[in-house]
Design goal:
The chain is α/β, with parallel strands linked by helices. The N terminus is likely disordered. A 4-stranded parallel β-sheet has the order 3-8-7-4. Helix 5 crosses helix 7 and helix 8 packs parallel to helix 9. Helix content is 44%, strand content 15%. Strand 7, helix 9 and strand 8 form a beta-alpha-beta unit. The chain folds into 2 domains: 33 residues; 223 residues, 3-Layer(aba) Sandwich (Rossmann fold). The structure holds zinc ion (ZN) (2 copies).
Length: 264
């Protein structure tokens, strides 16, 4: 009899445990269905516990995507093919309006498709994944550069209205949250609707962006600003924005982007 009791009690605990696990599993599944997290690189749903603050990226994607690695251009941060090179050809020839730039991935393959989906596929949640990777990699650099505020590259209001959001603002917002730095979303204004960059040659592109930005107000009371964008190609967008900030009295401007082209 006693033995039976014992068994019954033990089974009860096991049953209760199972029920509890089943309930927990169900809650997690529902949350997962409501808010599935997708790997920013392949867009497949990745299962994570709902309490995890970490945004998941598949291991296979991490291995496949091309991270920016040394040697890189000391100014713009583009990866270089020549180990002995200090600067890319572009930075050797033309000065930039910002002091130094850093980027996470080379703008090709999975990374290129990923920023495309953030922009045109409403995958705003990727912003957190990018920010997490950027801060993990460049958090020290941000601290060493004594950054006081994060500023996203703005979209022209017409473009913003069409898209419904500014992808750079989403990334900058998450960087601000992770680093504790303030994010100034309205400091820079894009006053001229720039023509699609693809249609322009290098010189037109630079001129196109030279007067495209202005600072809201006259004087900025900050001296170390981090500009944030999703893509860095020729640097003319960053230069246009940095130039406007310099005119308003900011002397230390740094650039951070999710993807970047290769340097030569
Ligand atoms: Zn993936
Ligand atoms: Zn460079």
């Amino acid at each position: 009899m006693r033995e039976n009791f014992g068994t019954a009690g033990f089974c009860g605990i096991v049953e209760l445990g199972k029920e509890h696990m089943r309930f927990n599993f169900q809650v997690q599944s529902v949350l997962h269905l409501l808010y599935p997290k997708r790997c920013p690189l392949c867009d497949r749903v990745v299962y994570t516990p709902f309490w995890s603050r970490e945004y998941p990226i598949c291991q296979a994607c991490r291995e496949q995507v091309e991270y920016v690695r040394e040697p890189v251009c000391k100014i713009c941060g583009k990866p270089l093919t020549d180990e002995r090179g200090e600067l890319c050809q572009d930075c050797a020839r033309h000065p930039h309006a910002f002091l130094q730039g850093k980027a996470l991935w080379v703008y090709r393959g999975l990374a290129r498709e990923s920023v495309y989906r953030l922009k045109y596929g409403n995958r705003r949640e990727y912003g957190l994944a990018y920010a997490q990777e950027l801060v993990r990699r460049y958090g020290d650099w941000i601290r060493r550069s004594r950054i006081e505020a994060v500023v996203p590259i703005p979209l022209h209001r017409k473009r913003r209205r069409q898209r419904g959001y500014n992808q750079a603002e989403i990334i900058a917002g998450e960087i601000g949250r992770l680093t504790g730095l303030p994010v100034y979303r309205q400091l820079l204004v894009r006053c001229i609707p720039t023509r699609p960059q693809k249609e322009l040659n290098d010189r037109e592109r630079k001129n196109n962006l030279k007067k495209a930005f202005k600072v809201a107000g006259n004087k900025v009371q900050l001296d170390h600003i981090l500009l944030v964008d999703d893509i860095y190609t020729t640097g003319s967008t960053m230069d246009g924005a940095a130039e406007a900030l310099r005119k308003a009295g900011v002397s230390h401007i740094y650039a951070l982007s999710v993807t970047i082209g290769r340097g030569y």
